[in-house]
Amino acid sequence: MELNIRNPEADRLAEESARATGETKTDAVIRARQDRLDRMRRERGGHAAGARGEAGFRSVR
């Protein structure tokens, strides 16, 4: 499955992160998303609300 990033800023950040870590862009995106979910869960004390992902957050475009 191919990763398709349409937002230029998101693509730039993924590329920069991938270069800095030696990861693929896909791995950099996965790590960033997992880190964000983990941080949200910690901030919420591990409650189920964190498991919803970012559905409750506004979209940044």
* SSE string: HH
Low-confidence stretches: 50-61
Query: What percentage of amino acids are in beta strands?
Result: under 5%
Straight-line N-to-C gap:
24 Å
The SS-based structural class is mainly alpha
Shape: elongated
Instruction: Outline the biggest β-sheet.
Output: none
Could you give the count of β-strands? 0
- Average pLDDT score: 82
The tally of helices reads: 2
What is the C-alpha radius of gyration, as a whole number of Å?
13 Å
Residue share in helix: 40-55%
Question: Can you put this structure into words, describing what you see?
Answer:
The protein is an all-alpha fold and 61 residues long. Helix content is 54%, strand content 0%. The protein contains two helices and no strands. It has helices spanning 8-21, 25-43. The two termini are 24 Å apart. The protein has a domain at 8-42. Helix 1 (8-21) packs across helix 2.
Notable features of this structure?
61 residues; mainly alpha; disordered C terminus
Secondary structure elements and pairings:
Blueprint: H1 8-21, H2 25-43
Helix pairs in contact: 1-2
Summarize the structure.
Helices cover 54% and strands 0% of the residues.
